[in-house]
């Protein structure tokens, strides 16, 4: 596959998402013209691109389906479930084909043959008795397979030679290439072309052949003569007759007689004009006076990598600056800091794309699933323009899909159940995305039957995951859902499987340094809240010092900072372990006690207050050194098991600091 | 001097492909994603030929053609449509509006270049 084809595949996959989106809208509102135009136009673009880049089979399928939507536009056909399903299924296959690694598989005809036939059948079955439609299809674009032999005679009105590079020369060649053909060029003594005669067996309609000459009308005259149905060139006798005609041994009438059929004179284009109307397209694509270019992901990763190196160098420079007493140097350093920060912010945005593509996929999923399960589900999305790292979007696709699948399978009740419970027959699954500080939030909620805590606990006890005496709070119970192998559905359906997956969901989110929490109320619904860091590589943090070791605590978690005497922390001998900070009791974790307890304690301790899952907690450190931009570097494999360390960062003086995850450090000390 | 061709297509892979093909042949190219953007470029730059798709969002090829031909300053710039559209009616309408040529996608390279060269030379 060459680069152009690769780029086409990328673009085509985007187009397919747009198509899905349009089809969803069309299904929701079958008489609206805007989505119809979008679907039509997308099919049209896809057809053009596919034909251009050597995927003619895809082009052909797009063409056939486009024809169906054209009939909808003309009011001959109505949007139906069948039509939408047929289109969705056909282009699902196209999507699969485009994602094949192997070009020969991509070119495979068989996979699309079924859908092509389905499209043709659809037309036949929908419009069996309509003479209008049959007329349309016999001369129109649908049944192109009526083969006819035609004589095309072209007489140039200007002086041109075969080598003249005039468009007409190539137009004639294009026509000859439309089927099996035999041609003759008659020239005068000086090599100028007197006329062309081409006998061609083609499925292309005469009206379409005429269009080849529209833009050279002033430069030539042409005639089309119908010689007969089928490929008459297969007959040896006609070959001879053609040669005779070319060399003026016989005239046109004799040729026609030879051809065995009398042909009417063409053109009869008036009868054959396409029924198409002018396309006043009102597509809802968002091209906001901004040109978009595609850049390879590798280049962006490269750029980000170098910018992170720049940030490290910048902080070293700032460090040196603080030790050198020079106004000039100071000024440059500060300006550089400003520029570096801008560069960092801009570069972080480059890799971000709206989660819209993902949302379209989900719409499909909800539609297909609810249909197959006999449930009625509305899918709502909010904040689809929220931007996320492209990699993260790809990683999150599966986990979110799994949650939605569960919501429909386990959450949403059947229409009868819902009615009996006094709810509307239609359930709702909603995905909401928004930014908050340095996080992306994704909330997937449903208004189904909710999670029954007792069922989970019973199951967990039965499987020996927890002891029957354990006192579990809501949070603990919901976290059990993420345990491998736990499923509460009394009948395991083939759709959401056996609870395999929720553990993977959690794992994937943790890999991205995010977290997931659940809120649920019986009979009201369930909400999964996923929180992911905006950037995967650069975080703002508080640089802290504990026993001469430096750590970074992500700034977005920090609520406030207080300094207290160290003695106030020493509560080993008390029952109440909370420490009073800012006149409030706070559960405090001392990093010194966790990792450096044998060192000489300082006089004071700085308490960093953080809010974890709604509860205020404190982290005690020796002292806070300041705010830094930490460029996250992964730790080697040996340390990757230590999940309370997010990564490391290199400081201005070249030393290393560990970046902590407050949530997990508390979990660690709990266990 | 290199001749400048404005390539208008909302589908990036085709636009890029056409631009690259033309650049290889020694033309200078500018890309635009719809008729409105194209028209802005035409009135602000020296463009020798406009090669446009027919079906585009915002402003279609036909609308672009009409804008160019109705502005005395740009009316002389030849416009060619490069499209999968093949309706004779549309082709006739476009010709009446001043279109110089209609190249169907997929095209043969020779025909493509001959039409472009012809349009640039003869208008």
Plain-language structure description:
The complex is a heterodimer of chains A (671) and B (123). By secondary structure, chain A is an alpha+beta fold. Chain A folds into five domains: 3-142, HPT domain (Four Helix Bundle (Hemerythrin (Met), subunit A), Up-down Bundle), CATH 1.20.120.160; 145-288, Alpha-Beta Plaits, CATH 3.30.70; 297-350, Helix Hairpins (Orthogonal Bundle), CATH 1.10.287; 353-533, Heat Shock Protein 90, CATH 3.30.565.10; 538-670, SH3 type barrels (Roll). Chain A is built from 22 helices and 21 strands. A five-stranded mixed β-sheet of chain A has the order 6-8-9-11-10. Chain A has a five-stranded mixed β-sheet with strand order 19-12-13-21-20. In chain A, strand 10 and strand 11 (525-533) form a beta hairpin. Chain A is elongated and about 120 Å long. Mean pLDDT of chain A is 79; it is low at 129-144, 261-289 and 488-500. Chain B is an alpha/beta fold. Chain B has one domain: Rossmann fold, CATH 3.40.50. Chain B has five helices and five strands. In chain B, helix 4 links the parallel strand 4 and strand 5. In chain B, helix 2 runs parallel beside helix 3 (61-70). The radius of gyration of chain B is 13 Å and the shape is globular. Chain B starts with a strand and ends with a helix. The mean pLDDT of chain B is 88. The chains are: A alpha+beta (671), B alpha/beta (123). The A-B interface holds A 4, 7-8, 10-12, 15, 41, 44-45, 47-49, 51-53, 165-167, 169-171, 173-174, 177, 207-208, 210-211, 214-215, 269, 273-274, 276, 278-279, 281, 283, 285, 287, 289, 291-292, 294 and B 10-14, 16-17, 20, 33-34, 37, 53, 55-58, 60, 62, 83-93, 95, 99-102, 105-106, 108, 110-111, 114-115, 117-118.
């Amino acid at each position: 596959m060459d680069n152009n084809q690769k780029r086409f595949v990328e673009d085509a996959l985007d187009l397919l998402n747009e198509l899905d989106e349009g089809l969803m809208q069309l299904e929701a509102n079958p008489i609206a013209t805007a989505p119809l135009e979008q679907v039509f136009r997308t099919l049209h673009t896809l057809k053009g691109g596919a034909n251009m880049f050597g995927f003619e089979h895809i082009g052909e399928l797009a063409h056939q389906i486009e024809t169906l939507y054209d009939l909808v536009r003309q009011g001959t056909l109505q949007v139906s479930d069948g039509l939408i399903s047929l289109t969705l299924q056909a282009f699902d296959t196209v999507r699969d084909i485009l994602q094949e690694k192997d070009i020969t598989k991509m070119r495979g005809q068989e996979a699309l043959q079924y859908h092509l036939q389905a499209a043709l059948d659809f037309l036949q079955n929908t419009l069996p008795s309509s003479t209008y439609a049959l007329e349309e299809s016999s001369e129109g674009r649908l049944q192109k397979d009526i083969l006819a032999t035609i004589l095309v005679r072209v007489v140039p009105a200007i002086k041109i030679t075969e080598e003249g590079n005039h468009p007409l020369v190539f137009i004639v060649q294009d026509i000859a290439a439309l089927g099996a053909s035999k041609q003759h060029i008659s020239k005068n003594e000086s090599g100028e072309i007197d006329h062309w005669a081409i006998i061609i067996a083609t499925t292309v309609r005469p009206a379409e052949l005429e269009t080849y000459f529209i833009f050279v009308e002033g430069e030539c005259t042409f005639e089309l003569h119908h010689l007969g149905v089928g490929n008459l060139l297969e007959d040896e006798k006609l070959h001879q007759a053609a040669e005779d005609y070319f060399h003026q041994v016989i005239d046109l009438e004799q040729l026609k007689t030879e051809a065995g059929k009398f042909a009417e004179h063409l053109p009869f284009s008036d009868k054959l004009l396409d029924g198409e109307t002018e396309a006043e397209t009102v597509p809802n694509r968002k091209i906001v006076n901004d040109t978009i270019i595609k850049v390879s992901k590798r280049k962006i990763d490269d750029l980000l990598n170098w910018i992170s190196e720049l940030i490290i160098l910048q902080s070293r420079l700032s460090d040196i600056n603080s030790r050198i007493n020079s106004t000039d140097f100071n000024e440059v350093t500060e300006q550089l800091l400003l520029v570096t920060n801008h560069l960092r912010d801009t570069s972080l945005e480059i890799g971000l794309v709206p989660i819209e593509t993902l949302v379209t996929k989900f719409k499909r999923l909800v539609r297909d699933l609810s249909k197959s399960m006999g449930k009625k589900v509305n899918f709502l999305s909010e904040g689809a323009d929220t931007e996320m790292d492209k990699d993260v979007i790809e990683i999150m696709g599966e986990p979110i899909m799994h949650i939605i699948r569960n919501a429909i399978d386990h959450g949403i009740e059947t229409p009868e159940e819902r009615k009996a419970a006094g709810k509307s027959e239609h359930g709702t699954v909603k995905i909401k995305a928004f930014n908050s500080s340095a996080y992306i939030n994704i909330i997937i909620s449903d208004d189904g039957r909710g999670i029954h805590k007792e069922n989970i606990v019973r199951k967990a006890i039965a499987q020996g995951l927890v002891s029957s005496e354990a006192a579990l709070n809501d949070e603990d119970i919901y976290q059990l859902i993420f345990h491998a192998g736990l499923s509460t559905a009394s009948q395991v359906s083939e759709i959401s499987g056996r609870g395999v997956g929720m553990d993977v969901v959690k794992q994937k989110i943790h890999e991205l340094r995010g977290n997931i929490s659940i809120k649920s109320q019986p009979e009201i619904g369930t909400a999964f809240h996923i929180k992911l860091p905006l950037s995967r590589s650069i975080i703002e943090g508080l640089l802290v010092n504990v026993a001469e070791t430096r750590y970074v605590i992500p700034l977005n978690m920090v609520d406030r900072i207080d300094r207290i005497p160290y003695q106030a922390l020493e509560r080993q001998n008390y029952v109440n372990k909370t420490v009073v900070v800012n006149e409030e009791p706070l559960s405090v974790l001392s990093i010194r006690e966790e990792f450096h307890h044998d060192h000489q304690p300082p006089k004071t301790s700085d308490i960093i207050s953080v809010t974890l899952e709604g509860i205020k907690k404190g982290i005690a450190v020796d002292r806070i050194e300041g705010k830094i931009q930490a460029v996250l570097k992964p730790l080697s494999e040996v340390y990757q098991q230590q999940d309370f360390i997010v990564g490391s960062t290199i400081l201005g003086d070249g030393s290393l600091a560990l970046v902590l995850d407050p949530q997990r450090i508390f979990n660690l000390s709990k266990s | 001097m290199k001749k400048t061709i404005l390539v208008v297509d909302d589908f990036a892979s085709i636009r890029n492909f056409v631009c690259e093909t033309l650049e290889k042949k020694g033309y200078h190219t500018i890309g635009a994603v719809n008729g409105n953007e194209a028209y802005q470029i035409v009135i602000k730059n020296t463009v020798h030929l406009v090669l446009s798709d027919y079906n585009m969002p915002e402003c279609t090829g036909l609308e672009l053609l009409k804008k160019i031909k109705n502005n005395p300053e740009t009316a002389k710039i030849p416009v060619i449509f490069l499209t999968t559209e093949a309706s004779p009616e549309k082709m006739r309408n476009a010709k009446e509006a001043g279109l110089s040529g209609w190249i169907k996608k997929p095209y043969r390279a020779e025909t493509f270049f001959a039409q472009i060269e012809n349009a640039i030379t003869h208008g």
